[in-house]
Amino acid sequence: MRVGIVGGGQLGRMLGQAALPLGMRTTFLEPAPDPCAAAVGEVIRAGYEDPEGLDRLAASADVVTYEFENVPVASIERLAERVPVFPPVAALRVAQDRLLEKRAFAEHGVGTAPFAAVSSVEDLLAAIEVIGLPAILKTRRMGYDGKGQLFLADPEQAGPAFQVLGGVPCILEQVVPFDRELSVLAVRGRDGTFATWPLVENRHAGGILRWSYCPADVMPETQARAAAIARSVAEGLGYVGVLAIELFEIGGTLLANEMAPRVHNSGHWSIEGAETSQFENHLRAVAGLPLGTTAVPLPVACVNLLGRLPPLTDLLALPGTRVHLYGKEPRPGRKLGHVTVRGSSDEEVRARLDRVRRLVEA
Ligand code: AMP
Question: How far apart are CA 159 and CA 167, in angstroms?
Answer without folding.
Answer: 9
